[in-house]
Structure to design on (483 residues):
């Protein structure tokens, strides 16, 4: 039997660790221990201390340190020793002295000298998973830690508390309690989630590809001939490159903080003098693909609340259809008025973003009228070319909901809302400004996976203020241009 390790979880409040060596490895081991227990009793002996380790020591009263060579007396009253020097003879000497006193030893990158290993650790609330490769591949252990950190949902602590309460209150004997707990926890096996993930992926992929084929087919059959396509490739308008950049930046911000894509694109395109229904139609056609990728990415990373998703997406679809039809009517008959209305609307959205940036998140409150929130967000989003995020995301965050779940759920619901708006505009207007749509699609899809990774990590205040400033400045320029 090659793997004889027996995993044990140690209560660090009762242990005193000694680290010999203060270089990069000593720093790493100290950070590993402090991450599990910031008040752990720790002594470090070294002739050299990494600057970062020195800073850590200055912030922790529970760490003792001695800048000198190792001495046998350093082993007194120690429970575990971690050796991190790059001198094999010193490592062996410390190991032998520690063993003679019955102290367990870990020697970095020297499995033969180790009595125990410091494995890679996954921590999610009360859940802790230790991963070891028997000292053979720390890199693989680290990769496994990253994998489990992603796939285990952040709200696992809630499930643990519920199960703990159930176990405490259960009046049956051990076998009855175990049987009931097994039934309750069957949903944690993962197969269901994998199937649901594949099911959504297939749905989003089918809808997006179907509409893309319809979009491309219509354009090729009625607008772009083969000769026109060749001429177009050799003479791509400058707007394409601008929309490529705008699509990337807008989706990066939108996917990371849950808002900003539509209003950023809408104000930019209004400055170019593009027809208003074509603006919203182009944005929603492009955003459908990027939001599909973003929504799936969030679903994969466990950032979606399914119940909230239904209450937002279904009313949001009806709102999007209504808003698109109103914009088509006004945009064709009252162009100047529509420009003014939309400019004022985007300016208000910009101000709302600033308010949101400085607003403190309230304690968690019950969300009322979620269906109306979805409908109004979808309506104004389709009518103004943007606003789903600033309206829906800001409202949910103000209710104290967790940032990554709000962003993930809103992003996934946005896919269905933009799909409804895009189909409505397409049925009425056909394909226009293809180079803008393609630029937005490519830029948005490129940024979507990166944005999902940044969800909850990107400084929200900074992002909101930048987007708000851009939107307000563009809106003012549009109003000045109109008058």
């Amino acid at each position: 039997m090659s793997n004889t390790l027996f995993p044990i979880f140690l209560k660090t409040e009762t242990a005193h660790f000694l680290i010999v060596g203060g270089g990069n490895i000593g720093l790493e081991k100290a950070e590993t221990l402090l991450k599990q227990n910031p008040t752990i009793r720790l002594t470090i002996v070294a002739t050299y201390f990494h600057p970062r380790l020195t800073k850590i020591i200055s912030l922790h009263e529970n760490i003792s340190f001695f800048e000198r060579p190792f001495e046998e007396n350093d082993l007194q009253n120690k429970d575990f020793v971690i050796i991190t020097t790059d001198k094999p003879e010193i490592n062996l000497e410390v190991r032998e002295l520690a063993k003679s006193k019955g102290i367990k030893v870990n020697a970095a990158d020297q499995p033969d000298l180790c009595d125990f290993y410091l494995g890679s650790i996954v921590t999610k609330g009360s859940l802790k998973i230790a991963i070891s490769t028997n000292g053979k591949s720390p890199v693989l252990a680290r990769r496994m830690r990253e994998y489990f950190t992603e796939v285990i949902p952040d709200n696992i602590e809630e499930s643990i508390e519920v199960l703990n309460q159930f176990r405490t209150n259960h009046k049956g004997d051990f076998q009855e309690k175990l049987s009931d707990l097994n039934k309750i926890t069957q949903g944690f096996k993962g197969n269901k989630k994998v199937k649901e993930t594949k099911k959504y992926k297939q749905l989003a992929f089918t809808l997006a590809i179907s509409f893309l084929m319809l979009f491309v087919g219509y354009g090729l059959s009625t607008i772009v001939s083969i000769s026109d396509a060749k001429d177009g490739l050799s003479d791509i308008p400058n707007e394409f490159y601008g929309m490529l950049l705008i699509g990337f930046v807008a989706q990066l911000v939108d996917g990371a903080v849950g808002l900003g894509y539509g209003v950023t694109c809408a104000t930019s395109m209004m400055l170019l003098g593009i027809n208003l229904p074509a603006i919203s139609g182009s944005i929603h056609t492009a955003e459908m693909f990027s939001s599909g990728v973003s929504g799936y990415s969030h679903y994969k990373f466990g950032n979606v609340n399914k119940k909230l998703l239904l209450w937002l997406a279904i009313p949001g679809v009806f709102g999007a259809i209504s808003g698109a039809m109103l914009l088509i009517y006004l945009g064709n008959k009252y162009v100047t008025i529509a420009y003014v209305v939309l400019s004022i609307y985007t300016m208000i959205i910009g101000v709302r973003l600033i308010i949101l940036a400085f607003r403190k998140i309230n304690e968690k409150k019950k969300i009322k009228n979620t269906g109306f929130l979805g409908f109004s967000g979808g309506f104004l989003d389709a009518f103004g070319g943007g606003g789903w995020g600033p309206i829906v995301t800001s409202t949910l965050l103000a209710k104290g909901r967790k940032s990554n779940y709000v962003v993930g759920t809103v992003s996934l619901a946005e896919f269905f809302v933009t799909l409804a708006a895009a189909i409505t505009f397409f049925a009425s207007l056909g394909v226009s400004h293809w180079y803008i749509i393609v630029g937005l699609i490519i830029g948005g899809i490129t940024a979507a996976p990166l944005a999902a990774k940044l969800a909850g990590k990107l400084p929200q205040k900074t992002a909101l203020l930048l987007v708000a400033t851009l939107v307000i400045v563009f809106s003012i320029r549009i109003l000045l241009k109109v008058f």
Observations:
- Residues 349 and 390 are 7 Å apart (CA to CA).
- The beta strands are 16-22, 41-49, 63-67, 80-83, 104-107, 120-124, 127-131.
- Confidence is low (pLDDT under 50) at residues 190-195.
- Residues 191-223 form the longest helix (33 residues).
